[in-house]
Amino acid sequence: MVPRTKIVTLTQFIIQRQSEYPHAKGALTRLLNDIATAAKIVNREINAAGLVDILGSSGKENVQGEAQKKLDVFANDMFITALKGGGECCAIASEENEKVISFSNEFSELGKYVIAMDPLDGSSNIESNVSIGTIFSIYRRITEVGGGTIEDLLQPGVNLVASGYIIYGSSTMLVYTTGKGVNGFTLDPSVGIFCLSHPDMRFPEISNIYSINEGNYIYFPEAVKQYIKYCQQDDESSGRPYTSRYIGSLVADFHRNLIKGGIFLYPGTKKMPDGKLRLLYECNPIAFLAEQAGGKASNGFKRIMEINPQTLHQRAPLFVGSRRMVEKVESYIQKYA
Ligand code: P6P
To answer: In angstroms, rounded to a whole number, what is the distance separating the alpha carbons of residues 217 and 269?
Structure first.
């Protein structure tokens, strides 16, 4: 933890690091600040959600056919507005929108970057006051003129320039990477500033938390069932039985594992062979952070970040967290393949 006497704000930190990205000429700095600004507004609404009419369903479904919450719509609108107005981003892919949102106004079409985001992940937990999050990922555009297109968004994770999340929990944190480590910033609500609180975040070497929705056990592949049994065996020398923790918010489950060590698993099942989580705006940004924090992210057979996306909302099985734990579950999956 950083003592309060040595506060480094997110803006100061990004600018200090900008020297490492001379090509960015400040655009990435401004883009990250646009995201932080939208996050503060979303945070305010989430914190007041119980007091104003913003809880509950919007009455619509999102492109995934999932009931859309009012806060989902609010968060989506807020991030799109902030990014459209910022002029650094020429297109967005969002969980809440079936197609790419292309910014073809003269201000934004010169933007060098595109963003894939889940504006409010875990929103089914809103009513129960459980931590939820925003997940974002930033690519350089591929097309050269006009508003961004799906070609700019369907890029593998290895092309990511930056990724991160905001976790709206007991405190609100913004955690991000630009490929030179992972750093965490805690929002000081009294002044509305994100302050560096968790420099150079890395998975602990020792880890003994596994995170999976065991309610789906009967649908899991045999390899995953066997891995769960491995986690539950009594073997003190390897810290087993492991502790089971599952929040049901990807950002919250991942963040806990990043702090305490652990593995998060959302495997493919008989019902959903590619799992539930979306490659572009959930798996890839989380995978980039995991790798930058010394961990690993796999679909059981290959690096998540090396999967070439074919469609905007495609799903991928996700095994992410402490390197050795991910390698262990991969060994089970490959043995049973
Ligand atoms: P299940 C939230 O809806 C989400 O997309 C992720 O945040 C979370 O990890 C997962 O779904 C939870 O899914 O099937 O366990 O409720």
So the answer is: 9
